Every structure is written in C-alpha cells, then in structure tokens.
C-alpha cells in the first residue's frame, strides 16, 4: 500500500483506505517507540505496523502514524496528537466511532495516557511491549473500562515484567473492562512484527465500534 509522508506540527505517515472513498471507514493510529524518534519518517517503515501497512495490499482502514522529535514523549504531545486526529477526521471519510489507538513501547505509554484522557474518542486500544505511565492513577485507568483493550507482551521482555502487566489487566477487569492479554512466551521486547501481522488483530481493528464517540471537528 502506498504510504504518504506529511510535515507539520507532528510529521506523519498515512495511507488511504481500500474501500469506497465516500464510505466512512475505520482509522488506526499508531504511536511508535523511543528509538524511532527523530526527523526521518522512513525509519517508521522498517518494522511493526507501519511496515505491515506499507507492504500490504490496500487495507480496510485508514492509517496514521505521527513521529516524535528526539527527546520527547507522547504524553508531552497529547494535545498535538488529538489535534492531528481531529484534522484527519475532518478532512477524510473516517468513521469517528471506529478509531483505534495503538502503541509500541514508549508509544504504548502514550496510548494509555491519551486514551485515558479522552476515553470517548476511541473504539479500541492496543498496547504492545509497554507499561502504563506514572501520570495515570487508578481512577484514570478505570476510565478505560468501556474501551476494548488488547495487550501484548513478550515473556522474555527485559524492560517490563509480566507481573506488572498482569496487575494492570486485573485492575481493569475488576472495574468491568474488556481486556485481552496475550503473552508471547519466547518473545522479547521487540515483538511488534509478530503482533501486528497477526490476522486476528487485523480483523479486530475493523470490528470495533464506539457508537457514542465524542468528536471535535
């Protein structure tokens, strides 16, 4: 699939949907990890979800992947991510009730923070190899109970423990959340290729819908 590159407040990659351009389609927003920060959007295409989208036939969803400058975090750029999302929805036939937010590592921390700060905006959250940031307390975390969540972690990840992730899963489930936790026993921190190429996850991206989505355009 052809991926376009755009500059702006946050430079980004995006790709159009395969289906009828006039029919509202889902949007998958991807937040990259720490090592992909900088000013070269092509580094995002080397692996994980951006590479999958780039190398695939046209997909049934729009794709958006902003890039952070060196030294910054997604938590710091929360308002810019939301502004970019608003602009994207306003300018393309995107179904605002079918927006999925996904992150890898540093991007997962950002995804947790942004989704918890704007729980009415997202139909699903995908967290890969990342922890919940310290900026979130339990009450903010449980605001995500209405959002279906997919969590993926490698059993040999040296950057975070399975026990810490399981505690988050248990907290969300106790609050009534819909959480699916997939542990890849032999996986390390860098499991993004394996996770994002899984057909079940790709189908999940387009099967989620939040009909009461609150959208600012």
From TrEMBL:
* Residue ranges occupied by any Phospholipase/carboxylesterase/thioesterase domain in the UniProt entry: 80-194
Keyword Signal attached:
yes
Q: Which superkingdom is the protein from?
A: Bacteria
Pfam families, per database record: Abhydrolase_2
Name the keywords, alphabetized.
Signal
Q: Does the keyword Signal apply?
A: yes
Q: Which GO terms describe its molecular function?
A: hydrolase activity
Q: What is this protein called?
A: Phospholipase
């Amino acid at each position: 699939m052809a991926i376009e590159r755009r500059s702006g407040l946050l430079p980004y990659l995006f790709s159009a949907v395969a289906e009828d351009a006039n029919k509202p389609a889902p949007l998958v927003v991807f937040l990259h990890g720490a090592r992909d920060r900088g000013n070269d959007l092509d580094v995002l295409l080397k692996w994980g979800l951006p590479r999958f989208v780039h190398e695939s036939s046209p997909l049934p969803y729009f794709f958006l992947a902003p890039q952070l400058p060196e030294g910054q975090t997604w938590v710091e750029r929360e308002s810019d991510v939301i502004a970019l999302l608003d602009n994207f929805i306003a300018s393309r036939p995107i179904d605002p009730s079918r927006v999925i937010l996904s992150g890898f590592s540093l991007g997962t921390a950002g995804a947790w923070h942004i989704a918890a700060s704007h729980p009415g905006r997202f139909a699903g959250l995908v967290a890969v190899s990342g922890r919940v940031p310290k900026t979130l307390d339990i009450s903010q975390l449980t605001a995500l109970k209405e959002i279906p969540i997919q969590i993926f972690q490698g059993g040999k990840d040296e950057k975070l423990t399975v026990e810490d992730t399981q505690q988050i899963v248990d907290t969300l489930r106790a609050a009534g959340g819909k959480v699916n936790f997939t542990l890849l026993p032999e996986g390390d921190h860098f499991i993004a290729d394996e996770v994002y190429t899984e057909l079940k996850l790709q189908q999940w991206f387009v099967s989620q819908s939040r009909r009461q989505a609150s959208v600012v355009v």
